[in-house]
Amino acid sequence: MDYNTVDTHSQLTQHVIRTKRNIKGWYFYCFSSEPFVVSAVATYIPLLLEKFARLNGVKINNHSIPCIDPHTLYNLSSNDTSKCVVPIFNDRMFIDTSSFPLYVFSISVLFQTVLVITVSGLVDLRDSLKFKKWTLITFGVIGSISTIFISRLNSSQLYTLPTLYILANSCFGVINVVGNSLLPRLIHDSIKFLPHLKKEDTDNQTTMISGRGASLGYSSALVVQIISIFLVKNIRDNNAKLIASANATSTSLSQPIINVDPLKDIQIPVLFVGIWWFFWQLPMIWLLSDLTFLSTSTSSHVNRESSASNLIQSQSQSQSQSPSPSPSRPSPYSTKEEEFSLSYGWLSLWESFKHARLLKDVMIFLLGWFIISDSITTINSTAILFSRTQLDMSTLQLIIVSILTMISAMIGAFMVPQFLSKRFHWSPKKILLFLILWATFIPFYGILGFFFNSIGLKEKFEMFLLAIWYGLSLGGLSAVSRSLFTLIIPKGKESTFFSMFSITDKGSSIVGPFLIGLVTDKTHNIRYSFYLLFTLLILSLPIIKSLNLERGKREAQQLSKFTPHHEHNERVD
């Protein structure tokens, strides 16, 4: 018996097992963290920030009168929509209670962007799956515990809430980038070691793994929201029993005083999200691990054409949400220079910008997408705050709005682009323009409320209908934007250009909430924010209209020809 053959077979078997375990570990990353952004950030955190502001606020016309009296049942059992401001920095400033969450969102995205760029460079230089795993776990634990702490705050901790949220959101930003950067490595290893796959299966394997990850993420968020409905309903039922009991036993003509926690129906779902995030990420500790190097004899059996390996990395990068450098690509820093790795992310961003500015249509697209992404993201937080303060919608109703948006976004991402492309034979550019117009209807409808008494977001049922409309546009825009961007970037530089796309997508959220906060602060009517959102979306139309796909493809091909060999991944035609 050839013991070398036995040893080789054993190593190959171990690599197959570890590759499958790594893919499962990546699925747990998607499953554990997605509810934070879909459930907590999109629904509960805006409500909690606004409620904290009102509980610490004063009447807009008389700063000596509290916005909400925390000792009376009447104000706590209803969503008082009177206009209030919250004093900050020892009463040096007074900002609208609806503006407070928007300013916090803007600041949190700023911190998140800075941290993500810094940490991503550190992770890229230490391109080890073990290092990335512990980065995911470390920031995931900090983020989930911060989320749990948010659920334990009382209304007097006005500054602690934004601090914990900024910390949790920044941690999520890091694990989102690091987690998505694992996808090219997983594709690379699965094609290389799983016996039933060949290099021709790269596209299908990428679609399958990323698709399953996205589905698991959305599914977990949906499960969390459904369970949250029962949690919130149980809290409301208990409060109703307290109120009924107090009213039945009260002999006074005045309204009885009952200590009902005004934050509980929001904080309990936040607590559930934090616990979900914390525990479902733990399996990654045991599942994710580096593949050990094979012996020379083993390598000859499993190491297929080197160009195929490069092809895998190039194609998987172009389809991953936040691509990373190839696992085999040498670091541009020597060992002695790695102490400066914290600056590498910023240097990489500068390199990305230098490449992008050579391509006119890439710059046009990024400018347009900055405005589109900013507007679409801001619509969500604005709508949640509008629903609470203007339509007096309950937490339970807003959870249903969130679920409708989520389901519609999934449908929009998978069906809308395909339908428009096949039915009308539209190009990606034309589909993108149509979806922008589709999304523009949302702020336009809100503006109608200034001129009509019966339409224009005057009733709660209108928000449920607009949630479906918004979800379809959100999912469709997300899918079409990436496919269109892929057409105009040079082959072999997908990682460089998608890093620019990611920064544009995430960083744009700094501007929108801040501007909406200013508008609300000046007018004390969040409905005026619809004018700004409508203007921004209309402004993006001529920018995207000026995009020339044929010219963009041509310029991308020309630039790819001049890409140095060490930067340009070899491809098999």
TrEMBL record:
It is a multi-pass membrane protein. It comes from the Eukaryota. GO terms for molecular function: transmembrane transporter activity. GO terms for biological process: amino acid transmembrane export from vacuole; autophagy. The keyword Transmembrane helix applies. Belongs to the ATG22 family. Vacuolar effluxer which mediate the efflux of amino acids resulting from autophagic degradation. The release of autophagic amino acids allows the maintenance of protein synthesis and viability during nitrogen starvation. This is Autophagy-related protein.
